[in-house]
Amino acid sequence: MPLDVLPTDTYQQFKIRRGFFRLNGSTILPGGVNFSIYSSGATSCELILFKNNAKEPFATIPFPPNYRLGNVFAMIVFDLDYENIEYGFRIDGKYNIRKGDIYDKSKILLDPYAKMVSGRNEWGVLPDKNNIFQYRSKVAINDFELETDPPITTAQNDLIIYEAHLRGFTQHKSSGVKHRGTYAGFIEKIPYLKELGVNAVEFLPIFEFDENEDVINNTVRYDSKGNRLLNYWGYNPISFFAPKASYAASGKYSMQIYELKNLIKELHKNEIRVILDVVFNHTAEGDKRGPYISYKGIDNKAYYILGPNGEYYNFSGCGNTLNCNNPIVRQMILNCLRHWISEYHIDGFRFDLASILGRNQDGSPMSNPPLLELLAYDPLLNNTLLIAEAWDAGGLYQVGTFPSYGRWAEWNGHYRDDVRHFLRGDLGYAKAFTARLTGSEDIYNPAYRGHYASINFVTCHDGFTLWDLFSYNEKHNEENGWNNTDGTNDNISWNCGEEGATSNVEILKLRRKMVRNAAAILLCSIGTPMILAGDEFCNSQFGNNNAYCQDNEISWLDWSLLEKNKSIFEFYKSLIAFRKQHPVFSRSCEETPKDYPAVSLHGVEPWNFDYSYTNRIVCVLLTGKTRDGRDDFIYICVNSHWENHRLHLPALPDNHPWKLVINTDFEDKSFIDENERPDVYHIGIIPPRSVLVYNAII
């Protein structure tokens, strides 16, 4: 055994030695475990050891003074039964709120680098208030290797992203899976995703978070049906490195790492990339009223952006703001992302409220944020997708101006809004809508950002589902407990004539058409499309546009709707296949047919776009090459008017006919079978509130 992993000291019954300072958290070594933690203001540090699930610790081991180097404490403890222990730290130091120092030696703190967390292994179980240590660090054993996990080579341009809540995807009884609401349950639905055709899944947060946080005055909240309200979405971080234990069917046995890795491996086997929604903008510790869990007691003024009197700046809207451009925090975030890609083979990250990552330590926006630059150029993240939600709750909105370094893509909020306005028939949006349909080059310079920068979406977890977008004029968030004051009021929605559920056949028919319109536009737009899980079979949240606290039928996908709305699912499926067949949508080939530009704008007359305020008809011609080198022409026509219009189509070489591929006015055959597509030469009729797509391959 090497000399540097042999014990040199004894404390009580424990053999110990000075540890490795460059390691973070807990690391298994031959014969022992290395424990390391940083704190700039600590005067002392103790390692606290518990048996699994024990109320009281069985050992407290202080770090001797020579076990500290700079601001890092490191110690190796030998002969530990590390599979059956939990650990934390007690840190002592100054207490001066105005200067940001709030050390409290009575608190046992979670390791910020913990790779596995226990203590809350079952979803929604209320914490035991008599438990002195709620979230407990565990030593992770990395014996589930992903060496045979095949690399996914799908280019970012060719992704079709599917945003899903891990629990809500299978928690409803209609899901039919054995282990509902878990990583294992999600595996059972992979054949469904494969059939649909998506090639990337973007999970809402799956690291350890506190779902029991949604309280008022420390009182558990319930809705009118008796459902307990929780922090269901997961934007309430506890530990950035650890997968959520209660999302694992085997979580109570501390097998969450294995179960999640198995899910990722199975997704990759099916050529589906995995993107994680990460929340490096705040933590569950909240403001001065919140608990000590980890960061507050370790180094409050390093981990959080504080005001001149020690108060918490709240650019996240959640009580505190992570101090992302502090060098210590910056390095932790980088180490965290490296951990997820190296240990779990994660393919990309979507950064919640990413504008906070560009704020200075005083809260001001930076022109060249070190963290964003560091992530963009990190060699281990070179092939990793970086997606920014380019705004925050402090009023910073950076869609199109987010510091990208040629690497970052963005959730395109302008795409969502402009498409909704135009589809609804609002005046004055034809030009903006056309820009969104053709890649938002007015926002993202393709010479610098390429054709992948815009993540296009009409709906996401935050807001109405697609069915609700055309079923409600107003939000209906009464069950959230805030008297319907939470959630945005500006939904750019339209109920098609009657609010909410209806038996009116004509209204239901129109709603289904509007869903098809939105789907056709999304999947025929240049940029990377993102679909909200359940939109493909008209899942509803019953008008709730802020279902963050609803762990019930409001948020869970109702799989019985898949059979009811089978034609919508088949339409999505055909659209996705159509998109994959035509590289013109991803602009992966810059070559175009002779005498035809890659993108051109048209109206009811070809080559004559109507820029007037009252225009409700947009036509776009996309050209390029098929994968076998033939000329490919796609003509997209959108009519948001409530009357039909006569169209003249642009002429093709040698008077070649167009084939009508999509007509959303058709209820069941909106996507026309290849052998049934009619020839169209020069004239077509576009029905009211409809989308037509023509194709010609020469």
Keywords:
698 residues; elongated; single chain; alpha+beta; Immunoglobulin-like; 13 helices; 33 strands
Task: Give the SSE map.
Blueprint: E1 9-11, E2 14-18, E3 25-29, E4 32-38, E5 42-51, E6 59-62, E7 68-69, E8 72-78, E9 85-93, E10 95-96, E11 101-102, E12 116-118, E13 136-138, E14 161-164, H1 183-188, H2 190-196, E15 200-203, E16 207-209, E17 215-216, E18 219-220, E19 237-243, H3 256-269, E20 273-278, H4 295-303, H5 327-343, E21 348-351, H6 370-377, E22 385-388, E23 409-411, H7 413-424, H8 430-437, H9 446-449, E24 454-456, H10 466-469, H11 505-523, E25 528-532, H12 560-564, H13 566-581, E26 599-602, E27 617-625, E28 631-639, E29 645-648, E30 658-663, E31 679-680, E32 683-686, E33 690-697
Parallel strand pairs: 14-15, 14-25, 15-20, 20-21, 21-22, 22-23, 23-24, 24-25
Antiparallel strand pairs: 1-2, 2-8, 3-4, 4-8, 5-6, 5-9, 7-8, 10-11, 12-13, 16-19, 17-18, 26-27, 27-28, 28-33, 29-32, 30-31, 30-33
Helix pairs in contact: 7-8, 11-13
